[in-house]
């Protein structure tokens, strides 16, 4: 029946490893690490001149000023439009392309070189090309996000679809399932954990792409805010803005991981 | 031996070639003849590479062949059909589906509505002894229980011909004996014709009316042994001297092929 947990030798309570085995212990360790990090940050910071690396408390107060004045919420909103539209395109195009790449040889031959190209070259190098094509527009920024993220969705989807146990598709075929039915009821569900892993990596890439697009293709959003603040040597606000992106990234990643865990529960153990 | 009308499965002088990567043609099956009469339980046993699973897949409509004829219930096989169902060696359960959804998979494919297919599935789960596990997931079950689900899924589409591809080979020896008895119990209440592939000699003899012994390189039928043990068969059957004798006969034929791989090449 349900597999029993492997027996663990009893360890004294105060050991760090035994703490990590408990939920509460893990939380305590995490909080302690965060407090330590903030403490070091606070100690390393110097608030005597604005040019120097700011303390944690100054960063927080500057961050709050940016929030209160409405600058940060508006720029975040603009930036996230790029991310949202870009990532939506990544999913809507990437997953079907991945499936077709796995199932149709010709498609694989056509798509694969471009994927290799997209993964292998530093994306920042082709941003001028995109800018020349599309100008300083929303479309240009979205294109950058898509190019950053889409290879990971396509490749992981294709691999996941290819790795579906052939016995399962044979089983479906033997019961008279059509190709479409087999795809919907057997291949896709079996490929979900692999696809989700690709989507998680792609999200990280999309976040990078989003900021890079705004830093290089001057237009709007967080990137141009950072560029502007940097130009005026305002280090603390730059750090505050950067931290906002980091926090957003952590939240979005946790969300995707949570979905991944829920959808992939059956594949564990 | 029997008229055409009585045959559930009829394989007549079937040959099959495999083309390997370098374009070389290898004969996998050489003019094989095999008949499974209606309601009969027939096992195929033979060394690895003798093509026994290939034969089962041909009958299932999953693999094609090059010469000869394969018929099920008097109709030429052209692909999978509703009168046949397969039980797989590795169970082939869908791990993201509960037991009851797995059992009703074949019915779903055929467009049976959910309440009705659950009804049928529940009845079958009870008959394979898994009445309390309909909401469990496959990974929560032992191998033996998973194969009971596989059997229930095959029976759910009410087939007339059941194809079993080494169904118990991944299951421990004790559970296996119990599954064999339970399979015979279920089969005896139906008029199913069964084609059963196995590596285990005692299993073949215990279950079958006929044991077909196959040789390899290329695959061919060496001998058909009629098993005249009375039914219903039970634990006493395993101690019957006739059972021991028949198992010995199967082993004698197989042993020759294993010790001298060239001794049995068809002329």
TrEMBL record, chain B:
PROSITE patterns: ABC_TRANSPORTER_1, ABC_TRANSPORTER_2. CDD domains: ABC_NrtD_SsuB_transporters. SUPFAM superfamilies: P-loop containing nucleoside triphosphate hydrolases. InterPro entries: AAA+_ATPase (IPR003593), ABC_transporter-like_ATP-bd (IPR003439), ABC_transporter-like_CS (IPR017871), ABC_transporter_ATP-bind (IPR050166), P-loop_NTPase (IPR027417). It comes from Oryzicola mucosus. GO terms for molecular function: ATP binding; ATP hydrolysis activity. Belongs to the ABC transporter superfamily. Residues 9-241 form the ABC transporter domain. The keyword Metal-binding does not apply. The lineage of its organism: Bacteria, Pseudomonadati, Pseudomonadota, Alphaproteobacteria, Hyphomicrobiales. Keywords: ATP-binding, Nucleotide-binding, Transport. This is ABC transporter ATP-binding protein.
